[in-house]
Amino acid sequence: MTHRTPCRARFIFCGFALASCAQESPGGDRLDAVPHLTIEEEMRLGDVDDPDVGFSMPGAVDVDRDGNIYVLEAAVPEIRVFEATGALIHRIGRRGEGPGEFEGAPRFGVIGDTVWAVSSFPERIALFDRRGDVLADTRAESVLVPLPIGHGYVLPWEMRSDGMFTSHFYRVSFSRGDASTGVEPADSIPYPFVLFDPTGAVSDTIGWAPRPPPRMWSPPDAFDLDFSFVDFGGRRLAVPSPPPAMPWWEPLPDGYLVVDPAPFGTGDAGVFTVTRLGLTDDTAFHRELVHPPVPYSAADLDSIAARAARGEAGGGVPYSPGASAPPDWEPIAATLRAEMSFPEFRLPIDREWVAQDESIWLRLSGTNPAVASWLILDEAGRPRGRLELPSSTRVVWARGDTFWAVETDELGIPWVVRYRTVRGP
After folding, report:
1. In sequence order, what DSSP letters do the residues of 379-392 get, joined into one string?
2. How much is the pTM?
3. Cross-strand partners of 285
4. Alpha-carbon span 198 to 140, nearest angstrom
5. Mean pLDDT across the chain
C-alpha cells in the first residue's frame, strides 16, 4: 500500500491546439419524430424492513463483467456488492479517514478486477479488488487554473482501462477582497486535460480546452448579471430568477461534450445543440435538435414564487436557508411574484447526463411536473428514442437497452431498479 503526502497544486497555463473536423448534421432532428420507448422492470434492490439491505441515499451504480452490481450507499458511505441474482455479497469501504475508508461519498467504478473510488475534500484515490480488499489509497495532486475571480482545480475524475485516471475541472476557490489572479474576464483561459497515475500524481497533459466548463466558471457576460432583491418585513429577499442559459459541459475519456440549451425565440420552435469535442478541441460531431417551445404559465410562476417563499428546493434562493417555512409565506410569495422577471418560454432542456456507454440523456422541458420526458442520443449524437419516467426517478447507469435508476415509493423508501427499454407502439 502506498501513501503520499499531499503536494502543492501545480500551475499549468499555456496555449492550446485548435483544429476542426466538424461533422455537421444535415438538418435539425425534430423531436416529435423520435420513436417512443417503454420500460420493463427486471430487478429491484432494497428492503423495507432491513436497514443493512435497504437504502437511505443510494447513489451511483456500476456492473462488472460477471453481472455483479455495485451500488453506492452515500449515507454510510459504502459500496454494496450484489450478485447478478440480486443477493447482497459484501460491502466495500466505510466512513473514516484510514486506508479504504471514505470521508464522503466517492465517485466509483469497476474496471476488470479493480474497484476504484475517487473522493473529494480531500482528494483521494482508493483501489480495491472485487472482494473489497484495499490495493492502494493515496492523496491526489491537483492542477491549478487561474480565473478572473479565483482559481479552478483540475482533479482526478475516473479510471481508464489502462489504469490511468482522466481529469475534470470540478472545484473552484474564489479570491476575497482585492486579491487578483492577473486574469481578466476577456482573456483566453485554456485548461488542460490531464492524466493522473494510480498514485494520484500528474502523469501527462494530453490536450487542451479553450475555456473551463461554463457552469463551473462563468463566461464574461455572466459578470454583468444583476440579481434582484426585495425587502419584506425587514428582511432582504432574493427574487427567483430563470435558469441560466449557459451550456452544460461533460467530461469524456477522449474530450468533452457541450450541450447548449439555447433559449426559444418568441413563438418559434427552438433549436438546441449537442457537440462532442476532442482533446485538441476538434469537433467529432455537432447535432441540432428541434423542440417545440414550452411556455411558462401563470401557475408555473406562482409555484416558483411559493417554493421560494417556503424555502423549498426548486424555488430559487430560499427565504431563510436551513429554516422551516414561515407560517405567513403567502404574502412573501406574492411580493416575490410581483418582482419576478421570466422569459416567455422555458429552456428546451433542463438536465443532461452521459451514461456508461456514452449515450447522452437529455431531460426535456414539459408541462407535467410529475413526469420527466428524456431524449436519449447514442454515442454519436443520433436520437435513439424518447422515454417518460416519473420526475423523481434518477437514472444512474445505462448501457444499451438496460438502465438502473433510483426511485422512491409512496412511503418515501428508495429503491435501486433495473429496467429494459423497448420500442413503443
Report:
1. TTS-EEEEEEEETT
2. 0.87
3. 276
4. 9
5. 85
